[in-house]
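User: Here's a chain of 121 residues. Predict its fold as tokens.
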Amino acid sequence: MWYRLLTPKWVLLHLLVAALFVATWFLGFWQLTKAEDGGGAVNWSYALQWPLYGVMGLWFYVRMAREELHRNPDDDVPGNAVVLYQRPRIDATGDPELAAYNAYLAELNEKALGQRADHGR
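Assistant: Prediction complete.
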């Protein structure tokens, strides 16, 4: 099941997340050195924020990978959804032109549904 995380897309994501995680720690360290040199409250806050961003990003990425591992791959296959169809009723009591047009539309709909059903077999 873990082999799904070894596709080229996921390997690229692994590398990108690792690089960004390391970058946030380096940026946090850089801000810490600025703050220790008298940079002020802004540098102290950024020194804490950058590593926090890295941890949050890593946490979201781990959640995304776990979702991928627990996902059913058959859910992505088109055509497995059940579609209920009820033939529309045609009101022939009103305008005869409207009734004829509705009958024509119903016939086109039946043909389209029939072609889709035959095409999938």
